[in-house]
């Protein structure tokens, strides 16, 4: 009972910090509680968030999205599953994008990037405001929930890739959270989410076009895909490339990397390699799109599933 009460109190503190950071004034943000990670406490909070996200996700899907898609558009069977998944993915990625953009620039160390590294050796980077801790724990909970959902869904051809991705993401979040790399960690989170929103909106338009046989929806799908490709390039190659440079080169001015820090840099470069690979696939689609072929004409099921896996990174 005492542990449950402590968990409820901590959840209240974190969610209050998140809402204050998003909606409050600078003076209110400055008064938010700060503290280091605590494994047992944070594990209990994360478990609470996993259950909450899981319940909300499936309630929205089964009670709202699928019935509306069936009634309004006439989608059913396997296309209904894909349509519902894309709706929820767009909602999740959009929500985390809004939260990240709202709270990360408000952190006192947000810019210039040298602030991501100054004082690292002192251990001060382990001290986080409640809004930042809430975002971090919610992010981890979201991917744990996603891993569970993948197990419950009909097995797709990219099942193994999705599971590996989710497990690796959870591991990276864990290492950065407890290892003091949370500043650059949340910057990466903010950069990797936005592009997924227009991608899934494009897929929704494509599914609607296929069901209603209306060219206007295919037009929207093509334009959204183009916007997605540009946003992917800016956030995941240009801006994320800067993060990799700062983590590798700029950070050396402020502390000497140990094995854990070097491993984090290696993971960032690995992630960059993956972004380059997936951007190559995007360019392949974009070239065919410029030749007048719609997105649905040039993406096979295999291509779509592999590209979907990439967009979750």
Automatic annotation (TrEMBL):
InterPro entries found in the cross-reference section: Lag1/Lac1-like, TLC-dom
Domain TLC, first and last residues per copy: 75-291
Transmembrane regions: 43-65, 86-104, 159-178, 224-248, 260-283
Membrane topology category: Multi-pass membrane protein
Compartment(s): Membrane
GO molecular function: sphingosine N-acyltransferase activity
GO cellular component term of the entry, any: membrane
Keyword list, A-Z: Membrane, Transmembrane, Transmembrane helix
GO biological process: ceramide biosynthetic process
Pfam families reported in the protein's UniProt record: TRAM_LAG1_CLN8
PANTHER family for this protein: LD18904P, LONGEVITY ASSURANCE FACTOR 1 LAG1
Protein name according to UniProt: TLC domain-containing protein
Protein's organism: Effrenium voratum
Lineage of origin: Eukaryota, Sar, Alveolata, Dinophyceae, Suessiales
